[in-house]
Protein: ABC transporter ATP-binding protein
Amino acid sequence: MLKVHDIMKNYENKQVLKGVSFHLKKGESFGLLGPNGAGKSTLIGIMTGLIRATSGTVTIGGLDLTKETKQAQQLIGIVPQEIALYLDLTAKENLMFWGKMYGLKGKELKNRVQETLELIGLDNRSNDKVNVFSGGMKRRVNIGCAILHRPKLLIMDEPTVGIDPQSRNHILETVKTLNSEGMTIIYISHYMEEVEYLCQRVAIMDQGSFIAIGNQKELSELVGKKREMIFTIKCEQGQNDIDRMCQYIHQYDPLKDIVVQENQIKLFDEHPQQLLSDLIQGMTELNVQMMSAEIVEPNLENIFLYLTSKKLRD
Structure:
């Protein structure tokens, strides 16, 4: 369904994308993770034909996006991170407008609008103006506009940011339904649990490159025997307690990669139980009070942290 080959993008003297390549099979659900500034938005712009790559090719459904742009774009639905609706129109009017933009008309347009309203759970609010909707309802209409023309490839960029749990669950189940019906999904999110729930394969992107790609078992194998350890410290002396503890860890093992998040220290080790005992002794010597210690089995969040040494929103 999608082939991205050796995509590079330069802005003046800065290389934003550094030879990104991947492919998606029809009906696959694919997660894309990366901290802010990793190059995700630029990659999306190139895959949708809105940004021209410096080099490389994108093929959608066998169509070269550069040479057959309009035909390829007809196969794409895009759910942008920002709400892209006319707030003074009703939900139905928004869907009618975007349906016409995709070339739908007459009975087919009316049927598609009704089907979409039912799918996003807003058929009973179809004649209400969007400006009275909650954030979650607006995002559901946003999704409706993207799927109205039944795209082969749906790209969703942070579709659940800042919404209520009910709308989030509805959106996740809608994505599941669309995928089960054969729609290929690219899902970009800062919520790891959503990506774990929805996606068969995941790519982790940082500094313009894919640093890992695979299913969750394959990504877990990149961590190997190492396990994430999380120490939460009671910072009676503020940042000084954190700094002294980090110095102790580096003296204990200079090779340890440490990530500090507020009053937490995170690191990886192949023998976490022994390290835990040693670091508790170090805290006692330094008179640093530990509030909790946790050893975490591999999941997307700590795999991401292990590979990038960053929080997802860094």
The radius of gyration is 23 Å. The domain at 2-220 is CATH 3.40.50.300 (Rossmann fold).
